[in-house]
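Hi R.,

Here's the chain you asked about this morning:
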Amino acid sequence: MSSLLADTDVIGESKIVWLEDIAGLESVRQAVHGTPYRKGKPNFGGLGRLVGYAELAPSVERDPHTSLFHRRVFYLVPHDRDSEPDGDYRTGSPGEAVDPQTVDMGQIGEKTERSQRRAITPAGA
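And the predicted structure, written out as tokens:
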């Protein structure tokens, strides 16, 4: 099970950069974010705490409509499980959340038993 992104959203990634140690994070939110640069830490004001991002290969072109590069970012918000272990996401996770240990360049992260803090029922089961 993936999380709201399509395979086309991760084409051209050359590197995943983690700003925090993901070993202690059971889930992170992933989204596609517009940025003027292929590499380096993107500006991520106001959406939450940036914990990682993707860098893009030199062959990736800007979006012709926005003149921005579309890069994946990984983030947490104040009410996520890392900050509020007994809060709304004590079990389960938001739709865009994945287990950070399943993230790799060009590969959408997945929900796991770890990210959900419960067993996952396979699709179609």
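The chain has a mean pLDDT of 86.

Let me know if you need anything else.
M.
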